[in-house]
Amino acid sequence: MTSDVPNMKLRITMLCSSTLWAGTEKWSLRTAETLAAMGHDVTFIARKPLLFMERRAKPAPYADGPGTLRFRPLPLVNDADLWSFYLLTSWLRRHADVLIATRVRDYWLGGLAAKLARVPELLRLGVERKPREGYWRDRLRYGSLPSAIMVNAHAIKDILATSPLIDPDTVHVIYNGVETPGPGSNEIRTAVRTELGLAEDDIFVLGAGRLATEKRWHWVIEAAVELRKRGIPVQAYIFGHGNENANLMNRVGELNAGEFVHFPGLTAHLDRYLGAADVAVMSSKTEGVSNSMLEALGRGVATLATSAGGAAEKLVSERDLILVGNDDQAGFVDQLAALCQDSELRAKLGSQGLETVRKEFSWDRMGRELNEVLKGLVLTHER
Questions:
Q1: What is the DSSP letter of 326?
Q2: Is the domain of 356 the same as that of 373?
Q3: Is residue 193 domain-shared with residue 270, that is, in the same domain?
């Protein structure tokens, strides 16, 4: 670290204990790459480093820059993994100016290790969650341990502000960065539709994310069934993995929807499928600002989402995308039907949504704002 504050080079450790690839994991990797490209030395500590290393941007944006990005394994078996705690504490003492923790387990082990190593911790929270005041572990991991909390929506900050455990002045709203390559080529669209066996008039509806109860993918299953009854040739593909997989497949079976609702599992090529999609959907009950939603908009795909979290803070319904009330399942169905039947509406929303996301959700903007927060934490901690 140098004394030249505007060009301060930090030793940043990022901690991510995930074993599956989803929005948080992608954000963590792209953030590490962005910070390295800005000149910082970043160490990415993970339970499964290959999960991230195999998905690095190519060519890496930091390859010829002054910063570095290295990956280190750590067992991170559970919340009581004392060996991981010892190794992490030792690493932070010797090699880190600041820690960024990204998942609930990371908040606990990382926060304790950072406190013992006397290194500031930035806790990143991407969903609406209020700490439980009566639960001692929440009092520590959200209240006592982090030096600051980063959220991706004012809606999350507003919830945290109601907790006596958290000082609102330590909560920083920094909107996610996202890639914005724009619409896929005709060649990609044709190849994907051929691969999926889609007929010429089929409407390709795409969802992506964890198969978890809060994502409410059953809304998409039930919407597809209703649209088929209305004569709309929808083909829905929901990419992801999670503990709701069996329940969702059972629901598909109950509704005899197997011919037009598909759960292909995880894919390393989601962007390719987005490049061919007609409509993207997000049916979540709780969110911050959904990465999957932003990625769809960044591909210029007409998008339907619930108003969960901070979706409406930077995006305008009926201009950038279509938003329905968080509990309005009937509205979700009707708006999906409208999008599937109106190609001009899809084109208009796709174009404007792409423009807004390029302006409001760039990695450059996110990196600059995060950089200022990290420098402030380190300078304050040194006093």
A1: T
A2: no
A3: yes
